[in-house]
Amino acid sequence: MHQPTSSSSEPGSSDAASTLVRHFPADVRDAFERFRAQRSPADADVVVLAVVRDHMPNKALSATTTLVEGTRLIEDLGFDSIAITEMVFFLEDLFQVRIANEEILRVRTVGELRAFLREKLAAAEPTPRA
């Protein structure tokens, strides 16, 4: 969709990501910091769920809906193209990944989004030297 504004190797990118998550509950901020330190997919999942909830167009529904793997972004949560675009921009900036329109159009459920982000993050991981 767009290029992230900074890479993890640029000065200040850590502060920018911390700024993006500052409004989330402490457990989500902690999961994000653990993800950055350890690259744990489980911690990334916690953050992704919080981002989905945060970007849900219907805030009343956001407070009462349990997000499970099969929860559909459009039909169940009320996402439209604008809300999805905003969520994708946020995820790109937060995780320093690039998400193409064609890729996100294939994502239909919360579980598919989590799996998709896991793949993106794994591909972005530095390869250990032998």
Task: Describe the protein's topology.
Elements: H1 13-21, H2 26-38, H3 41-55, H4 59-64, H5 81-95, H6 101-104, H7 110-124
What does this structure look like?
By secondary structure, the chain is mostly helical. The protein has a single domain (about 15-125), classed as ACP-like (Non-ribosomal Peptide Synthetase Peptidyl Carrier Protein, Chain A, Orthogonal Bundle), CATH 1.10.1200. Helices cover about 60% and strands about 0% of the residues. The protein contains 7 helices and no strands. The radius of gyration is 14 Å and the shape is globular. The protein starts with 12 loop residues before the first helix and ends in a 6-residue tail after the last helix.
Briefly, what is this?
The chain is mainly α and 130 residues long. It contains seven helices and no strands. Residues 1-12 have low confidence and may be disordered.
Which superfamily, in CATH terms, is the homologous superfamily? ACP-like
Helix content estimate? 55-70%
Instruction: Profile the largest sheet.
Output: none
Element-by-element helix/strand order? HHHHHHH
Task: Please give the number of β-strands.
Answer: 0
Q: In the CATH scheme, what's the topology name?
A: Non-ribosomal Peptide Synthetase Peptidyl Carrier Protein, Chain A
Mean pLDDT: 86
CATH class: Mainly Alpha
What number of domains? Answer: 1
Structural class: mainly alpha
Report the total helices.
Answer: 7
Distance between the termini: 34 Å
Uncertain residue segments: 1-12
